[in-house]
Design a protein that fits this description.
This protein has about 170 residues and is mainly alpha-helical. It contains nine helices and no strands. Helix 7 crosses helix 8. The longest helix is centred in the middle third of the chain and has 41 residues, at about 85-125. The radius of gyration is 37 Å and the shape is rod-shaped.
Length: about 170
């Protein structure tokens, strides 16, 4: 009963999107959910069916009571077959181990990404406002930029390669 309440309480669509699970993990979870739902439906179907056989009714309806006697003997002698489910349990445990490993791997990736994002956010917060930057700040941070501009001025080249292709020609002439 508690498992039904737990399954009903889980919002799987939200789980898939918010945790950033991989495609393989999401597909495996969906297949597992489908198989679980099918198994529950089949179980409910069979438990709702009657399990007793009214042999007296068949004796009164059928002329050949020897068939009913044989069926009764078979029912009394019937022993259910015991299945070895250890292979299935091992498969489930393997799936569970893979799911846990994937979850840990995903958690580590998310932690690394969060640290990077926090570092980027801290860098943005500590940076000087754009209005306070000067040309000398750009020259100090990118000395190659100054060399490139000086070379272009010496050659009489006052256009940036690729600028017209990207932004168009803004000249009035």
């Amino acid at each position: 009963m508690a498992s039904k309440a737990a399954v009903a309480a889980v919002d799987f669509t939200r789980l898939y999107t918010t945790l950033g699970l991989g495609k393989e993990t999401i597909a495996a979870l969906q297949v597992f959910r489908k198989r679980h739902g099918d198994a529950q439906r089949i179980h409910a179907q069979y438990t709702s069916q009657p399990t007793t056989v009214d042999l007296a009714h068949y004796r009164s309806v059928l002329r050949n009571t020897a068939i009913v006697d044989e069926a009764e003997k078979l029912l009394k002698d019937f022993k259910p077959v015991a299945y070895d489910v250890s292979a299935h349990i091992k498969t489930i445990e393997t799936f569970e181990a893979k799911a846990i490993a994937k979850a840990k791997e995903t958690a580590q990736k998310i932690d690394v990404e969060l640290k990077d994002l926090q570092a980027t956010l801290a860098n943005i917060e500590e940076a000087r406002p754009f209005e306070d930057l000067t040309i000398s700040d750009f020259e100090d941070s990118h000395p190659r930029l100054t060399e490139t501009v000086d070379t272009m001025v010496k050659k009489g080249k006052f256009s940036v390669p690729g600028y017209k292709e990207k932004f168009g020609d803004l000249s009035l002439v």
